[in-house]
Amino acid sequence: MTDAASPPIVVGRVRKPHGLKGELAVFPLTDDAESVFVVGREMVVLDLRGEVQEELLVEQARVYHREVLVRFRGHTRREAVEGYRGQFLAVARAELAPLEEGEVYQQELVGWAVRDEADEPLGIVSAVYDMPQGTVIEVQGPKHEFLLPFRSEYVKVTDRAGRRLVVDVPAELMR
Fold first, then answer.
1. 20 to 30 A Cα–Cα from 14, which one of 25, 26, 44, 104?
2. Tell me, what's the pLDDT at 2?
């Protein structure tokens, strides 16, 4: 499953064990949890450094409120999954549905060029944050460092092939 040319795509963050029979409460980091967390899907556990810790096979999954409850093959007790708390779940890019025009995986954004609508360079995306209000990108530029909500009123063009964003940055963020 792991391929250096195409790293796995993070699809969820493990919150905690759920119940006594090996289920995990997972916060989905995808807008299509029902098609990602399916029986038979191979997933990898990533630590905070992004390193693969283990490969797992989904045995059971169900959406529960804003989370997904997942049980992996061979993990039938709470004690067996306690160590996954705070880890991330990822799947091979090839297993996910193709992206629509203008869509992007959040983790791909780091390193993308950021330009304004006059095609002037503003900087490089240095980090992506998942905030309660939505996704925010951090841009490091030669003159300014700023945070920008990743929303259509600010991000005008998402060019995956060119690895660049064209943005409209409010003046107050550039001070």
1. 104
2. 47
Of 55-69, 107-121, 129-143, 147-161, the one with minimum mean pLDDT is: 129-143
* CA distance linking residue 149 with residue 129, whole number of Å: 9
Burial of residue 81 (number of CB atoms within 10 Å: 0-12, 13-18, 19+) = buried
Q: What is the pTM of this model?
A: 0.73
DSSP codes of every residue in the chain:
---TTSPPEEEEEEEEEETTTTEEEEEE-SS-HHHHS-TT-EEEEE-TT--EEEEEEEEEEEEETTEEEEEETT--SHHHHGGGTT-EEEE-GGGSPPPPTT---GGG-TT-EEEETT--EEEEEEEEEEETTEEEEEEE-SS-EEEEE-STTTEEEEETTTTEEEE---GGGG-
Domains of the chain: 9-95 (2.40.30.60), 106-174 (2.30.30.240)
